[in-house]
Fold this protein.
Amino acid sequence: MSDLRPVWLKRTARGLVVLVGLVLILLLAGSTALWFTVQDRLKTADFAPAKPLSSYADEAAPAPRPAPAPAPFDWAAIDAPPTSALPWVRWWWPGGNVEPSELRHELDQLKAANFGGAEVQPFAFGVKAVTDKDPAARARIAAFDTPAYFAILRGVMKDSPGPGSWTRRARPTR
């Protein structure tokens, strides 16, 4: 029974088999060369330690250091801890849809609640119900990377009740 496949198909198949074989031979040769190169570089230099490692097992343990004396406890520090010891809060902003006057009011509330700082986190997810009804709100929420947004953020950071690091900006969440 004669083979019904065209001659060009047989030759192409043979050529592909030969090509794949050559590629495998080259990969094997390259990986072998790489192996020997790495092994050659990993050889240890002529290094002789001053004494064998096992000799350290016979040495006496070093004397323990005395524990530092604890600082005297101050109950007044609990009533008025420093700002650096107060908890921080993640302050979620709906993108750029924020008003400076409301933010200043919320800053005052955070400080009154005894928070030590806030990390500003603009978000744009979860507001579909609002943005579907109000395209202008969608545009304001999506404007968290505009100069106007950063001007508001700078104003909030300037109005922060604590040191310059009282508020921080986190990466936007979409």
Remarks:
- Helices lie at 7-41, 75-79, 100-112, 128-133, 135-142, 147-158.
- The beta strands are 88-93, 117-122, 167-169.
